[in-house]
Amino acid sequence: MRYCACIAYDGTNYSGFQIQPDVKTVQGEIEKALKRIFKTDLRINFAGRTDAGVHAFEQVIDFPVIADIETYSLKKALNSVLPEDIRIKSVKIVDNSFHSRYSAKFREYVYFAFDGEYLPPFLCRYVWHVKFKLDVDAMRLASRLFVGYKDFSFVANEPEGKNCTREVYFLRIKRYREFVVFHIRAGGFLRGMVRNIVGLLVGYSANALQIDKSGNIIFSRGNLKSFKAPACGLFLRRVAY
């Protein structure tokens, strides 16, 4: 049987989603929980790799099990042994051809910023407190340059030579009083891509850089990757199949 699970987590206390040696990760905690239940090592597939401190409303995983367990019982069992900052929202049985990463049609991220003087302390793990007023209209104009099928190597923390061409379907920016929310959907994302795009737009709002369009590439003075939004405001919102 192959099971697919939808997961929410607070990434504050983890060194990212993907398992790494000698550090605490979300994948590591999930695989430890599966081992406690099934008494064997299981390696999961996952829809997207999130960095240290990044959160998820809906991450998707899948894994094979040589057993027949009712989906609700499996969800309940996993939640009983997982840390409280990782929750299984749902479990279902899928076809063996299903793969959380390769079967996905698109992914969506949201990023939360706050430009008021006083950020409530209980939000500091989930919101970037920007210390100046954000110009949402200016950022919306600049955001159009990131939409479409482009080479995003200039906003990705990927090794040289990797294919960094991706298609961004939309990038929307909305203000709710002192909160500014960035919502971006794409077929796939590169490492650091969303945080770098948000950082560039915030830098543009502050007149800290200039963005010019030339063909299909966005240019700027200085090091583009130095404009990087902190991890705390970023959430994997949805994976569609």
TrEMBL record:
Give GO BP annotations, semicolon-separated.
tRNA pseudouridine synthesis
The answer, when asked if Phosphoprotein is one of the entry's keywords, is: no
Q: Which catalysed reactions does the entry list for this protein?
A: uridine(38/39/40) in tRNA = pseudouridine(38/39/40) in tRNA
Q: Which UniProt keywords apply?
A: Isomerase, tRNA processing
Task: State the active site.
Answer: 51
CDD domains xref list? PseudoU_synth_EcTruA (cd02570)
Q: Which InterPro entries match?
A: PsdUridine_synth_cat_dom_sf (IPR020103), PsdUridine_synth_TruA (IPR001406), PsdUridine_synth_TruA_a/b_dom (IPR020097), PsdUridine_synth_TruA_C (IPR020095), TruA/RsuA/RluB/E/F_N (IPR020094)
* Record has ATP-binding as a keyword: no
Molecular function terms, GO-annotated: RNA binding; tRNA pseudouridine(38-40) synthase activity
| Residues holding substrate | 109
Pfam assignment, any one: PseudoU_synth_1
The Enzyme Commission number assigned here is 5.4.99.12
| Signal sequence, renumbered to the chain | none
EC top class, in one word? isomerase
Q: Where is the Pseudouridine synthase I TruA alpha/beta domain?
A: 5-103, 142-241
Q: What family name appears in the similarity comment? A: Belongs to the tRNA pseudouridine synthase TruA family.
What is this protein's function per UniProt? Formation of pseudouridine at positions 38, 39 and 40 in the anticodon stem and loop of transfer RNAs.
Assembly notes: Homodimer.
What protein name applies here?
A: tRNA pseudouridine synthase A
Q: Which organism is it from?
A: Hippea maritima (strain ATCC 700847 / DSM 10411 / MH2)
Instruction: Read off the lineage from the record.
Output: Bacteria, Pseudomonadati, Campylobacterota, Desulfurellia, Desulfurellales
